[in-house]
Specification:
The structure is a homodimer of 225-residue chains.
Chain A: H1 3-27, H2 34-41, H3 47-51, H4 55-85, H5 92-108, H6 114-125, H7 131-154, H8 160-188, H9 198-214
The first copy, chain A, binds a DNA duplex (18 and 18 nucleotides) through residues 5, 8-9, 12, 33-35, 43-51, 54-55.
Chain lengths: 225, 225
DNA sequence: GTCTATAGACGGATAGAC
DNA sequence: GTCTATCCGTCTATAGAC
């Protein structure tokens, strides 16, 4: 194993992945050509096909690189909390923080490109039809099942069909917050001071989400039972 | 003004706009070619350039057609509420319903293509860099200013810098809910029964959002003042 | 592993007949 | 207003030299 022989390979792969995260985040998948991508990554045009096989395979590798550790961290954090709780039900607050924590960790990682990925991820949630959505769905299945069970214990009075909507809202708020922060701040007018203060953002999100999760459903005039 | 002469023009324009809403929603702007679009709309390939000038101009026309009436309705509804209130501050509930109502109205309009537009809109919020984002931002400026003022009155104890984040979360939840409902239901597993019951969705969203808006900010260990 | 060159398909836009 | 034919650029992917 020569040192000079394997390092460039990993460097090229990594440089492609990092650049792809940024460009896909900025311009979308269809909006980013392999020509621009490889030029921006300072690698050869043929390198993507050599290392990943195709553009689609690159996208899949890109998501797996970040999502596998992120969801593993989410489950590990929930495991840790439940062991510490020794049978006591967790609070919604704790569960929410365990879920959004790994996202915010990546969000703070501006230098390593984690922030690019997080924004790309939020963007991708709202893109239907693509095989990517199916891939993401698969990667999330175990995590979602795990968190749904935890929330059911934490919110025993929540009707069965209701919880799935609350999780949906929670999920949406998180995805959107991470993905579109700049857009809304542009719409609403906001100074870029603590825009990326992940700790404060975690507090803000947790306060908002926990209150929303706990809220009783106030129904207006209903027609039938 | 011959009857036969002007009707086909409007029909072609409308058919292009309706088809574009659906295809852009499904595949994105870059992912939808003029060839596929015109074929699907059963119009000639050159028709888009004849009627709109370019693909970009078509996109702008598409957004203006829906957003202008929608935001006008939002402002009109708030005006109406404030007149009825005769000086009393509105409740967050009322304000939230005034804001999300017009979206849900479009959401219910499956036949007229409103639902396609709503999902396209949610999708577009998370797409940075494009001129479309700037256009949308401009179209929203008056509405956002109006609602920010109303919420400041409704939530007098909310610190100044905090409200903008709550609005951000509210906005995100709405956008995401409308845009990605199918995705999350795919991830989380949910039956498609009352998926598009807008009335129930309004109740759910309002309960969730009002609780989140009102929630005090619970801060964890803080470093400095 | 990296590069150049190119194949082969598809993109938006338009000219000009009808 | 509608249509066909076409220009010209860009796309992904690959073959083959080094």
């Amino acid at each position: 194993m020569s040192l000079r022989a394997v390092k460039p390979q990993h460097e090229t792969r990594t440089r492609i992945l990092d650049t792809a995260e940024e460009l896909f985040m900025l311009h979308g998948f269809e909006g980013t050509s392999m020509r621009v991508l490889t030029a921006s990554a300072a690698v050869n045009l043929a390198a993507v096909n050599y290392h990943f096989g195709s553009k689609d395979a690159l996208i899949e590798a890109l998501f797996r690189r970040r999502l596998d550790p992120m969801n593993a961290a989410r489950i590990a954090e929930l495991d840790r909390l439940e062991i510490d709780a020794k049978g006591r039900a967790l609070s919604p607050d704790e569960i929410i923080r365990a879920f959004i924590g790994p996202s915010l960790l990546l969000m703070e990682d501006a230098k390593g490109g984690g922030r690019n990925f997080i924004r790309l991820l939020g963007r991708t949630y709202t893109e239907p039809t693509k095989p990517i959505r199916v891939l993401i769905g698969q990667l999330y299945v175990p995590t979602m099942a795990r968190y749904k069970a935890a929330l059911e214990r934490a919110l025993p009075h929540m009707p069965g069909g209701e919880l799935i909507w609350r999780m949906h809202f929670m999920f949406g708020t998180l995805a959107y917050t991470l993905a579109a922060t700049d857009t809304v701040q542009l719409i609403a007018g906001c100074k870029p001071e603590d825009r990326y203060d992940a700790r404060l953002l975690e507090d803000r999100l947790t306060s908002f989400l926990a209150a929303g999760l706990n809220a009783p459903l106030k129904q207006t005039v209903k027609k039938a039972a």
